[in-house]
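The record is kept unedited without comment:

——
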Amino acid sequence: MRGVLGQTLVLHRGRVLLNTWKAGELVGRKTGLLGAVLRGEDPTEAAVRIAMECGNVQLEKSKLNLRAIFRFKNTEILDGDNDGYDEEFDEYEFLYEADHEESISATETDLAIPEWVDVESIPYESMPADDLEWYPTVLQGKSMRGSFTFRGKDMIEKEIWEVEEIILDVFQDVKDGDLSRLNMGELKHLAEGIGLKKPGSGWPKVAPPLARKIDLIRALRDQDKEYQKWRDLWMYDV
């Protein structure tokens, strides 16, 4: 199954906290507080752990806001091998907006060297290519969805867009789990929030055949079943 990474951008007094990596495939490059989410681990709880592991940064879980989810695919062509391999994972992007008076300390670890960088001076040339595409939007407190395709370190394709909010569970705020209670505007909001509706895709394509209310409800349920199946396997290995 596809893996999950988590990255947190800590914003404090007009500066963002970046790590320069000392080892691994990102050695010498900069990112936010980035790391792997473990099987069975909630991504928000993982973000708190990752911040401590890679920068000794103590974050309050309640102040972590999920602002983006991107699907990454890396198709690397191996030397002398045209088959290569595919690596696919989701990356959850969190924004942590520290209060002006809040004290946020970060120190060097075995993994990385942290530093505060002015938001207007982020060194994108020293960072993974996708960061330039979404950091500015997320740092403004906006939400995004989409995907990136890489070949090695080279980004060869992207499809990203803004959404009003990130929604994971279709039924989370639906009374009695009854989608028929919602009007078309509310149903479309759900479809956009879970990433079902992409820019340029007409509603009949999203909810075939006619994008009627019953069609949209069916599409939302199908999408939610797919997500819940993956989540149960990820969280509980069932």
Observations:
- The two ends are 12 Å apart (CA to CA).
- Confidence is low (pLDDT under 50) at residues 80-85.
- The CA atoms of residues 169 and 224 lie 7 Å apart.
